[in-house]
Amino acid sequence: MSLLTKEQRAIFDEAVRAHALEILNGGEEGLTSPIGSPSKHHHQRPGNRVKKGENKILAVMDTEAHPCFALDENDPNYDSAEVNDYELRQTRVGPRTDVIVAYKNAVTAIIEEYFQTHDARETARALDETEQPLYQHFFVKKLVTMSMDRGDREKEAAAVLLSALYPHHIDPEQLRRGFERLVESVDDLAIDVPAAADDLAMFIARATVDDILPPRFLHTNLEGLLPGLRVGEKAAETIDLAHGHLHAHHGTERILRAWGDSNLTPLQQAKHAIQECLTEYVSSGDVNEARRCLRSLHMNYFHHEFVKRALVLCIEAPEGHETAPRLLGLLKVLGKSGEVSASQMKIGFDRMDVVVEDLVLDVPKAKTRLEGLRLMAKEEEIHPMRD
């Protein structure tokens, strides 16, 4: 016999059914990769950092027999968004396009590792070892664009890193040029990231508040900022939005807290985000939004906190309330899809042994409710009971 009441069973089934229907319609299933499948973002693990000097970008000089044609638009690596109106000509300098590609690959790995470790000092060392000070604007552009494709935690981390690297590891002129390239390409970025103009405007405002980008950046005529290049609608919109952020009432405070409290550690920020995500889900019942929220954390190793906090909300909810069946339905969806691994589910349930001792002060029946949740989790194959 089911441990859920008829009403609770309906709520539980609704959460699971919403996910199943989305899969049948060809929707959400493609938004996540199964556990163990390759990620589209390759990054270097903190324990496997390259040895000192391995980030250095080397270029082989061309010869008379093999001249290099810099900025050749027929080259597969050619990127019109990264270059100005240069005249194509034969040159005796090294293969600049190849050097740029190598540099971009190196800084992509550096940024991926930074988003995992948040170690600004190690990132500064790795960036210095590339020994390409004239290409640092590529790093600025890559850091901001990669954070746009992630959550607020990465955006805040990117803003903090730019301030940490300025001016000793990133030249002021290179930083300014990086933001120019971002404004130039924002129309293209908006194709994949619809909020690109909003995000970039906040980055510009934040850089201005942090005193790493001069205020006159926003007062430069766009045609003068991007000579000879097409200026799209999003570029002007970005500048206008940045103006608005900086001149709004209490604008500075809002800018500094746009992506969370910079004084909090990444784990503290993740805990806040998880609590908000669960609270919103209990209210809305939107399973797919809860899944997107969990993925945006990019912290698979911390999913046990999500499980634990979901169970705490179940225990604290009024008896007979829809909170417990709704959250158990969500955990079943996350467990079945692999978005929360079996090990993380187990850790989350096991952590409740300690947490419940504090909960009994406010909820006298906390231990009884926890045992009930464990029984329901076993019944619904969310998490097996311990022997």
Distance between the termini: 21 Å
Spans with pLDDT under 50 lasting ≥5 residues? 28-53, 58-70, 85-95
Q: What string gives the helices and strands in order?
A: HEEHHHHHHHHHHHHHHH
Radius of gyration: 25 Å
| Helix count, DSSP H or I runs of 4 or more residues | 16
Question: Could you give the order of strands across the largest sheet?
Answer: 1-2
Anisotropy-based shape:
elongated
Helix content range:
55-70%
Mean pLDDT score: 80
Number of strands: 2
Major sheet details: 2 strands, antiparallel
The computed structural class is: mainly alpha
β-sheet strand percentage: under 5%
Describe what this molecule looks like in 3D.
By secondary structure, this protein is mostly helical. It contains 16 helices and two strands. It has helices spanning 6-24, 96-117, 120-129, 136-148, 152-165, 172-192, 196-209, 222-225, 233-247, 251-256, 266-284, 287-296, 303-316, 323-337, 342-359, 366-379, and strands at 68-69, 90-91. A two-stranded antiparallel sheet has the order 1-2. The protein is elongated and about 65 Å long. The model is unreliable at 28-53, 58-70 and 85-95 (pLDDT under 50).
Give the topology:
Elements: H1 6-24, E1 68-69, E2 90-91, H2 96-117, H3 120-129, H4 136-148, H5 152-165, H6 172-192, H7 196-209, H8 222-225, H9 233-247, H10 251-256, H11 266-284, H12 287-296, H13 303-316, H14 323-337, H15 342-359, H16 366-379
Helix pairs in contact: 1-14, 2-3, 2-4, 4-5, 4-6, 6-7, 6-9, 7-9, 11-12, 11-13, 13-14, 13-15, 13-16, 15-16
